[in-house]
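A favour, since you know our C-alpha cells better than I do. Just paste the record in under my message, thanks.
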Amino acid sequence: MLAIAAVLAGTISIAPAYAYNSKTMPDDPAVKYHSWQTDEEGNFLLDEDGALIAAEINSGDNAWMLTSSALVLMMTPAGLAFFYGGLARRKNSVNVLHMVFVTTGLVGIQWVLFGYSLSFGPDAGYGFIGTLEWAGLQNVLHDAPSDVYTLTIPHQTLMIFQMMFAIITPALIVASLAERMKFSAFLIFVILWTTFVYDFAAHWTWSLGSNGTALGWTGELGSLDFAGGTVIHITSGWAGLVVALMLGRRLGYGKIPMEPHNVGMVVMGAALLWVGWFGFNAGSAGDASNAATGAFVATQVATGTAALTWSLISWAHTGRASTVGAASGAVAGLVAITPAAGFVSPMSAIIIGVIASIVCYAAVAFKNKRKWDDALDTWGVHGIGGLAGALLTGIFSESRYSWGDQGLAFGNPAQLYENAVGAFAALAWAMGITAIIIKVMDAVWPGGIRVTPKEEEVGLDLAQHGERAYAMD
C-alpha cells in the first residue's frame, strides 16, 4: 500500500504543497490541501500570473485505481460471502451471507465519518493513530490529489480504495464466529474492532507525512507490507482465533459432521476472490505503473502454485484431491503474497506459494487436533498465511521491483527483523484488543453475545433472520 509513496521518492517534478516549505502557504484549504508542481529543488512553480500550478491528475492512473477499488469491493459481498456461505452448514448460510454483506455498508460509513482520518490522517503523536482532521472527509478532495499521499489521482480515489480494505478485514472474522454469535452483537463488534484494531494498525504501517516519509512507527522502522498481509490478514486471522476461543465450540463440535454444505459456492467464492485480488495487490501500487505489473504477476503465480500445492498435499494425506482444499490453497497463496506482491520476483512468488500452502495446511490440521473451533479457518489461512507472508517478504524482497529494500536472501538481514517486528506487533495488538472487546461486550450484552443453545440447534438462518437459504427446505 505504501507503494503509493514511490512517486515521492527521488527527484520528481511535483510535490505536496508544504513538503518543502520553500514558500509560505496560505491557510486556505483550497490551497493547502492540493498538490503543486515544483522544480527538482522543491521550489514551487508559478504560472505567468504568479499563481501556483496545480499537479495534474493522470486519467489512466485514476481509472486503474477506481477499477481496483471495484475489484476489491467485489471480494467482500460477492467473493467472501459465497466462500464463507458455502463453507457454513446449510442452516447457517444466510446468517454468514448477511454478516459479510452488512459489513460492507457498516464499515463504509465508519470510514467516511472518522475511520479514514484515524488511519491515514495527520499523526496524533508517536506514529500510533491519526487525528480527526479529515473526519467526514474534510479536505479530502474529489478533484485534486492529496497533499501527502499521491500526486496523480484525486484524494477521494485513494480514500475509496482504502475503504475497500477496511471493509474486508472485519468481514474475514465472520469465519471464526460463524454459527454462534448474535447478529446484533456482531454489528457493534465490527464498529469497535475496525476502530480500535484496524485503524491503529493501518496508521502505524501505512501513514505518511507531508514529505512522503513514514509517520507510523512500524513504517518508520522499515517494515514492508505492500498490500495488507500484516494490516489485514494478521490482524483479522489472530483476532479470529481469540473470538473463536472466547465464544467456545459450537454444539456438537467433534461429534457430528460439520462439513461445507455447498462446494460449488466455495469454488465460486474463491474464484471471485482470486480475480478481485488483482485489484487488491496490483492496485496497491497506487498507479498504473510497472510496480502494478509486478504485483499482478506475482499474485497470479503464487496463487496458482498454492492451489496446486494444497491439492497435492491433501491428495497425499487423505488419498483424495480435495476441491475445497484447492480453493483454500488458492486463498492461502493470495494471503501470503499480499505483503510481498510488489517486492518479489515471479520465482520468489512460486516459493511463497508453496510455503504458504504447507504452513496453512499444517495450521488447519493443528487447529483441528487442538479442537479450536475456528469454524471456517480464518486463523489457519489468514492468520498463519499473513504471518508467513510477512516473514517471507523480509527474506525475498528486492529493491529493483519497487520502493522496498533488499531482503535477507539478497544480503539484508535487517529487513527480516523489521518485518518480524511489524508482524508480531500487529498480532499482539489484534489479539489483546479483540479479547478486551469480546470480554466487555459479553459482560454488558443482555444474555451475552452468544446465541442460545436452542437457536444454535435450529440454525441462525431461522433464529436470527427468519429466512432459509433454499426454498425446498
Notes: The chain is about 60% helix and 0% strand.
